[in-house]
Amino acid sequence: MLKEFVKGLWKENPVLVAVLGMCPTLAVTTKAINGFAMGMAVLFVLTSSSIIISLLRKIIPHQVRIPSFIVIIATFVTIVDLFFKAKFPDISKALGPFIPLIIVNCIILARQEAFASKNPLLPSILDAVGMSLGFTWVLLILGAVRELFGFGTIFGYPIMTHIPGFKPILVMILPPGAFITLGVMKGIMEYLTKKWSK
Amino acid sequence: MKIFYILIATILVNNFVLHYFLGICPFLGVSTKMSSAIGMGFAATFVMTLTALITWLVNHYIIIASGFTFLQYVAFILVIASLVQFVEMFLKKFFPALYRALGIYLPLITTNCAILGLALLGAMRKYNLIENIFFGFGAGIGFTLALVAMAGIREELEKADIPEGLKGVGIALITAGLMSFAFLGFAGIIK
Q1: Chain B partners within 8 Å of A113 (Cβ)
Q2: What is the total count of domains within chain A?
Q3: Torsion angle defined by CA atoms of residues B47, B10, A67 and A35, in that order, rounded to the nearest 10 degrees
Q4: How far apart are CA B117 and CA B47, in angstroms?
Q5: Do B112 and A177 touch (CB under 8 A)?
């Protein structure tokens, strides 16, 4: 049972191994806090929709399962969007259209199709939470690295500014910085996996 | 004039893939061969132009008119999913040659975030109908441009000697980063 939870963190990590959900990963990680907020939003949507779909898995007809999943997911995404707008308007503005775009985040649909629609409630919840946390840590690190070099801060606390002569590297918070940092992270991940499996 | 501005902006400056990070999954997944990149690009351009037209009508005459704005996301995704299905059936019946060329890419487009992103961005920017259609068309052409350029580079990359861990997705992401760098150069064209 614990296996279902752990696999999302490293071995079947949704971003670095399965290469799913790349759009929010690259787009919102200009700051660590934005990456964390996106991770939490996905945690809520993925867990809630896995609960509903796992409970309804015997009722939903096979032919219309994809539209049914998408409507359930879209409902929870609307809840998250309204919640962020009401409680954290700054983060909601920074994430922009990427909160509603969680609907078409392939991680969520992939977990419903591959896991929640075939498994009982408890394993489905563990799978959903594990996958969301695997997604969150990648976004958190990517956001922290880009924020550190792009603004000289982490979570808004100045760090690099203590180093004399440091100038923010603007390109890290522009689109090329996202692509290149994630590419390097993927390379490091492959290297470590190979080294540890020996 | 505004239409021309929107076209240039969506194709080059605010390219959907390289600036907004929309449609990254097909961008990485379908860019290994030139022929499939072209097929996917045209299928997406076709669906995006249609989506821009239909979601504008749905948004203005149904959602805003009835006041149910909280149903916007659910309505958009249902419109897109059924539109893709409809386009697939229509092409199969009336343009079988085109269907054979684009058919396998159509189902993939439903979960392409560029399509839903297009509908949401268009609604946020409050374009009028004509502007929104050109926004959709420009976004499709921009997507095709990025996809085809990437496919050309990746076909050459097959022969290159790449460090072990970076093979496949890693080097593709770094290449996309360099392409995105190049596209930053267009930023001066518009204000």
Answers
A1: none
A2: 1
A3: 160
A4: 13
A5: no
Does B184 lie at the interface with A, CB-CB under 8 angstroms? yes
User: What are the phi and psi torsion angles at A133 (to 5°)?
Assistant: -70, -35
Is this prediction's ipTM beyond 0.90? Answer: no
Pairs from B93-96 (Cβ < 8 Å, separation ≥ 24): none
Across the interface, of B19, B115, B120, the residue whose CB is closest to A100 is: B120
Chain A residue with the nearest C-alpha to that of B183: A176
Report phi then psi at A153, rounded to 5. -130, 165
Q: Between chain A and chain B, how many beta carbons pairs sit less than 8 Å apart?
A: 123
Q: What is the pLDDT of residues A87-135, one digit of tens each?
A: 999 999 999 889 999 998 889 988 998 999 999 999 999 999 999 999 9
Reduced to 3 states (helix: H, G, I; strand: E, B; else coil), residue A100 is helix
State the smallest CA–CA distance between residue A186 and chain B in angstroms.
6
**C-alpha to C-alpha distances, B129 to A41, A130, B11, B55, B59, nearest whole angstrom:** 32, 43, 19, 10, 11
Q: Enter the pTM of the model.
A: 0.90
